[in-house]
Amino acid sequence: MNARVWLAILVASLAWGTNGVATRAALNDGVPPVAMVAIRAVGAALILFVLIRLRGRRAPSTLAQWSTGFVQGIFQLSVPFILFTLAYENASAGFVGLFAALIPIGTAIAAHFMLADEPLHLAKAAGLSLAFAGVAFLLLSGDSGLDEGGRPLVAAVLAVGSVISISYAGVYAKSHADDFDPMELTFMQFSIGIVVIGATMLAFEGLPGAISVWGWMLIGYMTVVGSVVPFLIFFWLLQQVSATKASLVGYIVPLIALFAGIILLDEKLQLGIGVGGLLILAGVIMTDRSERRRIPTTPMP
């Protein structure tokens, strides 16, 4: 992979890694979790619509385009946004961020069944086993990264559900990579997400009450830096490299979330998080190296 791809992975990782810390801060400020996600989706869709119009293009209109956008809106956006946000209510940003490292593993499994040129072989299976050993150690330790009020098992179940959803959506998008423009697909997924997340908000929370200025600033950060920017980069990556390689943002996200949470939110680096995180990352690295040995990188134009 050349410098542009690595730079894209780094920027997306920074955006998603700090997004978790912003989410925790907004929850601490009293912003309702689903309302937070709904407002982000509306803001991101509006930004993307303006960007599309500035490029002199119209919003996507074909059934094939919106079919791909529908899948991304449900499985790449609505389900993981809601589940990850709820997970942050039960554990630290570092704890939840570790599960983002499982996305390349989940993607490798989904790609095995959905893409003919990305098989799951023995080395990948070994990496998978090591990563899930890290998850098991993390859960058995009972550590959540919070001084009090943490529920690591609840957070883990929610985060794993997010990983499964994202992994499926990423491989689905890779299988249709020739059929979409990254900006247009990102716009479609947020447009679909508005409907799904908005309905969820009304069903479980109702309309949000007053939100502080600080809360709105955090939501604005999550909308632009934590949503629009990394999704545009991710869909661009899917058009340049394999689905598993595009998911390598999961390498850096947990490290950024962990240290940013410690520095900015006074979260704790506990034994279970440290050891479990190392095992998870080792398993992901093993998976990536096995793929690089078997699948040559496609040069970028």
The oligomeric status of these chains comes to: single chain
Question: Which structural category do the helix and sheet elements fall into?
Answer: mainly alpha
Helix content: over 70%
Strand content: under 5%
- CA-based gyration radius: 18 Å
Choose one word for the global shape. Answer: globular
Number of helices: 12
What pattern of helices and strands is seen along the backbone?
A: HHHHHHHHHHHH
For the residues shown, what is the average pLDDT? 83
Distance between the termini: 12 Å
In short:
The chain is mostly helical and 301 residues long.
Explain what the structure shows.
Helix 1 packs antiparallel against helix 9 and helix 1 runs parallel beside helix 11 (249-265). The chain has 301 residues and is mostly helical. The protein is globular and about 50 Å long. Mean pLDDT is 83; it is low at 294-301. The chain is 77% helix and 0% strand.
Topology:
Elements (H helix, E strand, L loop, with lengths): L2 H26 L4 H22 L8 H26 L4 H8 L2 H12 L7 H20 L10 H24 L6 H23 L8 H26 L4 H4 L2 H17 L5 H24 L7
Main attributes of the structure:
301 residues; mainly alpha; 77% helix; globular
